[in-house]
Amino acid sequence: MAEVINHKARAHSLLSPSGSAKWIGCPPSVMLEESVSSSEDSNGSTEYSVEGTLAHEFAEMILRNEVMRDGSVEDDPDYECVIESPFYYDGMEDDVRVYTDYCAVRLFQSKIDWVGREKDVTAHIEAKVPLTFLVKPGDPLRDMVKDDGGSVDFAIVTPDKLIVIDLKFGRGVRVSAEENSQLRIYGLGLYHALLTDIRWGGIKEIETVIVQPRISSIPSTQTNKVEDLTEWLDKTVRPAAAMALQGKGELNPGKHCKWCKVKARCPAQRDLAFELAADDFMDDPALLSDKELLEVRKKAPVIMDYLSSVNSYLFDQLMLGRKVDGIKLVEGKANRRWKDETNAIKTLQDLGFEEDDILKKTIQPIGKIEKLVGKKKFPDIVGMYVEKPKGQPQLADADDPRDEYSSADAADDFLD
Fold this sequence. Notes:
The chain has 14 helices and 5 strands. It has helices spanning 20-25, 29-35, 47-67, 79-83, 92-113, 181-194, 226-246, 267-280, 290-319, 341-350, 355-358, 366-373, 378-381, 407-415, and strands at residues 122-130, 149-157, 161-167, 205-211, 220-225. α3 crosses α5 and α8 (267-280) runs antiparallel to α9 (290-319). The longest helix has 30 residues, at 290-319. The chain is globular and about 85 Å long.
């Protein structure tokens, strides 16, 4: 049914599940993105995406060694490669284990629910699912996606329910499972693949789950009936997919434009940003009511995101050597740094300066000390010297699942 995929070798897909909100919301964006050169793509690999890839690989390693079998991730031949990566940070394992522990608990619960009923419960890690189902059977357009595939981070298959669990490692924007087209497509794709096996003909529901440990320990979930998702597929997804593969439809700017390669040059995106700015930013914000300020806050990200994409595009063009009238690259501010610490230290010591005045000694990061003494012994040995400080207050929408920050604490933090 499914094969293990390599995160680093994902095939390019016109109808990518991760980009589904974009091509469903704005079908012509697919072929417009295909038409531009790679130099116009400002959404390439960043330290954040590389960090996310590492976290996914670490999570997969833990699941394979400790959930799918009774082993230890530290025995995995690639374990050292992960923890020695420059993108591994102190605390990454704790963050990743929020996700893997959740997967383990859900799998255990599912097996308990079906114990003694002569029914199978199976689990799949990084399972690749075909995307041909996104185009109607018999439509020649299927040939354009016949080799495409998406991957499910972790899936639990029971006789009557399919559970799709996705790890999101970003900490900037909370991603919800509610109406999430990416997870819905993953679920439907896996469901269609499972239909070839008579054991799974009784699946009636698909539950989609997002675990985003660096924002909240509380997963976001949604359960849909297969018949409802099938209706969504036929009425919304397949028509959009057909238009996308043919380059048809109207440009439709919105939240789905965030990772669009051509956003900076999109006339519809420009028109929307100017329209919103004209509507809300002509008056002094200090004179607006709280309700009006909230409306401004809701619309501001669209404008700021568009301006950011324009700046990124122009910066990339100048870095490639292209001249753009009216702007130029200049050297930014840089701080001094030691280019030869060894000789600097020796010279200062020769002049009689004390070592304590020259060098700064600090304890190793918590993760390294925990590995040194052992994870199980760590709490008893030095756990009493570790604390997790309270996070700084930040704005969030009212439906955010995290507890509200107390106004008294916020006032104290502001004064501090």
